[in-house]
Design a protein that fits this description.
By secondary structure, this protein is of the alpha+beta class. Among the domains are: 70 residues, Alpha-Beta Plaits, CATH 3.30.70.100; 82 residues, Calcium-transporting ATPase, cytoplasmic transduction domain A; 139 residues, Rossmann fold (3-Layer(aba) Sandwich); 113 residues, 3-Layer(aba) Sandwich (Calcium-transporting ATPase, cytoplasmic domain N), CATH 3.40.1110.10. It is built from 26 helices and 26 strands. Strands 14-26-25-24-15-22-23 form a 7-stranded mixed sheet, sandwiched between helices. A 6-stranded antiparallel sheet has the order 6-5-7-13-8-11, with no helix packed on it.
């Protein structure tokens, strides 16, 4: 199966996205279709052996809409510019139509030759209305097409309303031309024309608001420089990003941006990676360090080898992750989906019933047709369709800016229900970097010389502690021969002709070397033996991450159970747990056992979040209700978590919980506002409150419909100002 993201043109409401999903989804070879109304694209999973991109675009066209090709977040600017020009031109026509039709009613001067002749007045208003009808041709085309496909949407309602108003006015125009002057009072050309203009204006304002929701994604797309300097034949050459190939040597000077992901091969510097990690402190970079496209080189001159380019780059992966996550649906959004499916047919039925009742009750045909039009125009499901997706896009954009990547929007809903949070220890609660704290030996120099010599040949995390010690203390070490690594125990080999052993007590026991344990073994212990005689006991410690203790305290205070899982021994685990204030600890567990513990917690009825490093914790992350990976590298795609923290700052977990709570609350507010608007405006449009003098015209109905959609979008945009450095868990309940 293959996944493709296609831009969609012409959608106006939730019924539009539902129509595409329904029609395209039932075609042979289509696995799934998810349409994002806000971002205007569809995520389609299909069988590439059966279908091609061109065939899928054909299905979209057959459903009444147009594919704009592979989705690009930056493509909306040209469309908005064209819409702005059209609005200005047709705005002048709409103003003239309104002025000539209604100016004399409120005492405004109207040219005498128009005001004095009913035929001229009717002809001029018709002439001004026709361009506006042409302006709305795309609305009518989609509306009629969706009627025939039995998937009527907002365009269908507007089409019916405008055609009814225009058709009746056209009949009155003919009667005026035939000499029946009193029919001039039954001309509603201005209603038909102004409705179209207000609908177009509403779509433009809505598009502007939606465009703001895409700003975080666009910011990521545009963060990389347009060009870079690479070395060719030892000469610096300026090239565009498209010209950089994997393996090219790229030069970056102080103040410039890193062009592509790569590895430093020359120089040292500090770079600002806050756009991706949310960490304001510049990161140190030297030979062997990884650099990320878009980060800013502060103070050094470096050369780096290009590694990940184009769609494989970190930025591209983040953009794809944010975009795809915005197209997943929360359970709460299904309320709007179900409502939009029945909404249009119900509104159409109400309009027809009201039209019939008005005629039966003896109201003039003009009143009946005006009321019919008003109901169709005012009852637009636009705001209902926007209620959920705009909030999700804005929230996930805000999270991405703060170094929190959400792969699936359901996470924002689930995180509110979490009652148990499980942490891996090493690399999650602790730095994952062991340091030597104490050496017990009668011949320390010889012991450390042996240990450093042996650990140079190992890639185990413990080895890095000895390498750091060697660097800090100028210990050169010797050449180690016949090195053999024994999994879970240590390494054996020869140094200077002596048989040496460096590892834990299990290694010493295996080779019959006496090694005693003591209370200090709350730390990680490494023994060094030469020719089967113990010569040193070395104690190592993994430091706690900054903010880890405060984070745990806040989760506990908010009523969330905190659990720690670790493969370390019980004494080490208990020391770390005691320091952090964690009461539930599972020690000496392998990845498979971690997954079993998660399964058991869920079986006991708990909603579980698992926080790990995303590699050996993959089974547990997958099984948890919310999997959170603490990540500091560039490969963000190869883990099983639903959330990726792009820095090791655990305080960002609070931002995730806070965003989840505020997003769900915002969606509920939007849904309430949408339902309340329709519950209020439809009865008014039907004339239920006519006895109290409360009625609205089709033009006011179009304006009200526009304002309802804009209100929902503006409410969702409040999420962009979230302070994601707030309290953790459920303790902070204020929006």
């Amino acid at each position: 199966m293959q996944k493709i993201l296609l831009g969609i043109e012409g959608m106006s409401c939730a019924a539009c996205s539902s129509a595409i999903e329904h029609y395209v989804g039932k075609q042979k070879g289509i696995e799934s279709v998810a349409v994002n109304l806000v971002m205007a694209y569809a995520t389609i999973v299909f069988d590439e052996t059966i279908l091609t991109k061109k065939q899928i675009e054909g299905f979209i066209k057959q459903s009444g809409y147009k594919s704009t090709g592979i989705y690009k977040p930056e493509d909306s600017k040209r469309s908005l510019k064209k819409s702005k020009i059209n609005l200005a031109v047709f705005g002048v026509i709409a103003f003239l139509l309104l002025y000539i039709s209604m100016g004399s009613m409120i005492g405004l001067p109207v040219p005498y030759f128009i005001k004095n002749s009913k035929v001229v007045l009717a002809s001029v208003t018709l002439g001004l209305t026709l361009p506006l009808i042409f302006y709305g041709a795309d609305i009518f085309f989609r509306g009629i097409k969706n009627f025939f496909r039995l998937h009527p949407n907002m365009d269908s309602l507007v089409t019916l309303g405008v055609f009814a108003s225009f058709g009746f006015s056209l009949y009155s125009f003919v009667m005026v031309c035939l000499g029946n002057a009193h029919y001039v009072h039954s001309l509603y050309f201005e209603s038909a024309g102004i409705i179209i203009y207000f609908i177009k204006l509403g779509k433009f304002l809505e598009a502007l608001s939606k465009d703001k929701t895409k700003s975080a994604v666009k910011g990521l797309v545009e963060i990389t420089p347009k060009s870079a300097v690479i070395l060719r034949d030892n000469k610096e050459v300026v090239v565009s990003l498209d010209e950089i190939k994997k393996g090219d040597i790229v030069v970056c000077k102080a103040g410039e941006k890193i062009a592509v992901d790569g590895e430093v091969i020359f120089g040292e510097t500090h770079v600002d990676e806050s756009f991706i990690t949310g960490e304001s402190k510049p990161a140190e970079k030297s030979i062997g360090s990884k650099v990320i496209a878009g980060s800013i080189n502060f103070d050094g001159y470096i050369k780096y080898r290009a590694e990940n380019i184009g769609r494989d780059s970190t930025i591209s992966k983040i953009v794809n992750m944010v975009v795809e996550a915005s197209n997943t649906k929360m359970k709460i959004s299904r309320i709007a989906d179900k409502a939009s499916l029945v909404f249009t047919p119900v509104v159409l039925s109400l309009a027809l019933i009201t039209f019939a009742v008005y005629l039966i009750a003896g109201y003039p045909f003009a009143d009946a047709i005006t009321t019919f039009t008003t109901i169709l125009v005012v009852a637009c499901p636009c705001s209902l369709g926007l209620a959920t997706p705009v909030a999700i896009v804005v929230s996930e954009g805000a999270l991405a800016k703060n170094g929190i990547l959400v792969k699936n929007s359901e996470v924002l809903e689930r995180v509110n229900k979490v009652d148990t949070i499980v942490f891996d220890k090493t690399g999650t609660l602790t730095t994952g970097k062991l340091t030597i704290k104490k050496i017990v030996s009668t011949c320390q120099d010889e012991a450390m010389d042996i240990a450093v010599s042996m650990e140079k040949a190992s890639n185990h995390p413990i080895a890095s502690a000895f390498k750091d010690f060697a660097k800090e203390n100028n210990v050169e070490g010797k050449k180690a021969d016949k090195v053999q690594e024994i999994g879970g125990m240590g390494i054996v080999g020869e140094v200077g002709g002596d048989k040496v052993f460096v590892g834990n007590k299990a290694l010493m026991d295996k080779f019959g070397i006496e090694a005693t344990q003591n209370l200090e073994e709350e730390m990680t212990v490494v023994y060094v033996a030469k020719n089967k005689s113990l010569i040193a006991t070395i104690y190592l410690e993994d430091a706690l991450k900054e903010n880890a203790k405060a984070m745990v305290e806040n989760f506990v205070r908010s009523g969330i159970d905190v659990v720690m899982l670790t493969g370390d021994n019980e004494k080490v685990a208990e020391r770390v747990a005691k320091e952090l204030g964690i009461k539930k600890v599972f020690a000496s567990v392998v990845p498979k056992e971690k997954a079993e513990i998660i399964k058991r917690l869920k079986g006991d009825g708990h909603i579980v979040a698992m926080v790990g490093d995303g590699i050996n914790d993959s089974p547990a992350l997958t099984l948890s209700n919310v999997g959170i990976s603490v990540h500091t590298g560039t490969d963000i795609a190869m883990n099983s978590a639903g959330v990726v923290l792009m820095s090791d700052d655990l305080s960002r977990l609070g931002g995730l919980f806070l965003a989840g709570r505020k997003t769900v609350r915002n969606i509920k507010q939007n849904l309430f506002a949408s339902f309340f608007y329709n519950a209020l405006m439809i009865p008014i449009a039907m004339g239920v409150f006519r006895f109290a003098g409360l009625t609205i015209s089709p033009m006011i109905a179009a304006l009200a419909m526009t304002l309802s959609s804009v209100t929902v979008v503006l409410n969702a945009l409040r999420l962009s100002t979230m302070n994601l450095g707030g309290k953790y868990g459920k303790s902070n309940n204020k929006n």
